User: Fold this.
Amino acid sequence: MAAASKTPAFSLRDRLTTFLDAPPFQGAIIGLILVNALIFGLEAIPAVAAQIGPLLFALDQTILWIFVIEIATRLVIFGPSRFFRDPWSVFDFLVVGVALLPASGSLSALRALRVLRILRLVSVMPSLRAVVDALLRALPSMASVGALLALVLYVGAVISNKLYGQTFPAWFGDLWLSLLTLFQILTLEGWADIMREILPVHPYAWMFFVPFVLIATFAVLNLVVAVIVDSMQSGVRSAAEEDKKRDEEMLAAEENISATLRAIRRDIADLKTARTKTKRKRK
Assistant:
């Protein structure tokens, strides 16, 4: 009786898991996320929000509760221990949970974070998950590049403060202003205008700023791109190796099955031969 009572529950859980992971359901979830993103955009347009604001709110709440039911179902099916071991499940749980915060009181400002629900596209779409995984794998190397960039900025800020702090205090008056100005130059935002202001007073200023731009912008920042590209290529290679290994395992399993079937056929043939010989001897 105990075994019989467990079987229906297991089959129901198995069917629910298959249903939640099925492409049609995943496609429906992606569609709801996109509709939710459109709703957030329309709510940010005052004229539209004034006309159909209640309808947008009702649609938003409906989609929210669909997400809540989906995540609650996954939580029940997989159990808390398995559910919270998956980083993407935790991500979905937090993103949807933020939208359930009260709309009044000290937490009302956090309601603006409900737009983060759109980020569920990352957890639903495998291609986006692969990109995020590559970025996460690149974080240690990016931290090293970031430390190098911070070092270059700091050294440049100290030098520029000593050289140009008295004549251009608005840009290089202290360490923090120098860091801010050099960060602006690093992004190539208005750095030519800064140079035109400084060069009449300091004709040799280009000997500092040109190497700084070449080192910080074209060398160090491109290292970040190189690290990310390398991480993504490593992920692609790892995925290809896993696919190759999986194919080899499947091929080996098929060969084992074929060998077993051939052995069974030989045994059957031997049994038939032995039976035929036995019948002849009796005759």
